[in-house]
Amino acid sequence: MNQPAPYVHWGFILISLPNLVLIVVMLALFVAALIAPFPHRAAHHRADDDD
Amino acid sequence: MTEAGAGNPEAAAPPSTGGAGSGDGPEREAGWTGAVRDRLTSRLSIDELLPTRQPSYVGSWVYVFGVVTIAALVWVVVSGVVLALMGSAWWHTSSLGHFFNSIHFWSVQMFFIFMVLHFWGQYWGAGWRDGRAKTWMVGVVIFLFSIVTAFTGYLVQQNFDSQWIAVNAKDAVNSTGLGGFFNVLNFGQMYGLHVMLLPIGVTLLVVIHVLQVRSRGVVRPIGDPYVPDAAQGSASGGPVR
Q: What is the model's pTM?
């Protein structure tokens, strides 16, 4: 870690590899949160709608 | 006035206090304490403050990002208190100091990562709908406060990195005109802001943000098929404004 991070240069985009990896991980986490099943969702799905 | 009262029975009725307490509600008492109490109780009941059930659409990982952000903030504050108690020589030279310094740093990373994920979720879900604009705006202010708080944190590390950041940031801050009020090279000023004023500000804003969410409930998903648009307004059955 005692050296500059490698950079990705693509056209006008210039970003360090750690920052690029972080953004990709965050996007993957967000998409996973949208599609991953939530525990116990089925048990409460209709009961709450009856309120 | 007497004639109007005699001719119209409704005119003789006591004036309505309006709001949630109109009709059968308790009478309002004079004074600012009574006014604040009435306002708080009309806006936030204990059932809304500590609900035991949530709408079915809350069963999604997207709604977990906000509470994970708060959990990270707790770790930020706890580790920050330890660092403030022990001092910079401790966090730079001892193993335990390095450990708490790392906890502070990485919990801040988690705080920002999950705050941005929460932000994405609310942005794409239009979380400001149905009277939640103020909740959205407070969230934006929290984001801005957090950036300044983190920046002052970089300035008070007491190492060459913080000196390098301060020397370079000096020109940027001066270019905005804020240099007349904030000197990033002044360690005492930056440290006071970082450990006292800004964390108190962020924490208070987060408390307000959570209370706002509790008072209105979690916003319904866009195009929720279970409730027609006309009935939208209070996901938790709370007050509609």
A: 0.78
